[in-house]
């Protein structure tokens, strides 16, 4: 009897392997088929007969939404209607009704992805959904084509996140996925991942999700037509706006001439601002701005020591009162230190903050109003007269 059971088990495994090899493909950087336990790039024949496509995590983005609909069938109808009108195709899985709503997890992918890879599968399954279905009280860190991911159980909002950019370790990924740090994480390599994905039992366990994994190509073609319509409409709108813009430009010729004159006066200042002001040598060039007429810039030498490495002058605004508003970004000193440095200058009469000080991790943005001593002296002379 045991020999008979063993024989049946081997026959079932052989049939499973044959079906997966013939009808199932994996899409990572390219399309792959599993042949004799080894991933091989899919041939044209493989792509032609594919029925089920496993979608690599780099090809989709998950989104979770709550729908206040209790009946499963009604929600499926709503989601199918959304798929018809969505600019990007998506797959979905529906969670149980919690008394108020049903949570729906969607996986959006590019509308050109299947066509670019010359495949037309009936079912598309996100790889993390296969892995997540077998997880309970643990997470999995795995590697796929030099990409590292962490996959978590289905009861969390998102099932997968890539360890890349700012998210470089498990702790950061857990925070982003809202997973307690105490949850165990098991590391596995690519060979483990391939076995999990091409596992008939794992794929069959997703049978309840089949309505959300089915690809309707007739609906996708309608979406493409709508995008073409919107693209054409956008071109017409842009042309219309260009014509209107040309008409308005011709009607304000006198204002443009006045603007050009003003820009000519400001050009020395704007040129210096655009050079980022990262060194004292650049800051000393500001001392020559007192020659610009109309702004009463008399002593830029007093401010020059401010622009040391790490302090950038973003913008200058000359106020009607004769005072000067300096918008700065500091990566080396605190805003209060910069203010103290300004007040220590001999030719600065007054200086104080204006507006909010924006403090970031690596820099601070702030505005300081400066009154030069020369301006204060002129004000006193006018009052005395």
Automatic annotation (TrEMBL):
TM helices/strands, residue ranges: 228-248
Entry keyword set: Membrane, Transmembrane, Transmembrane helix
Name this protein carries in UniProt: Uncharacterized protein
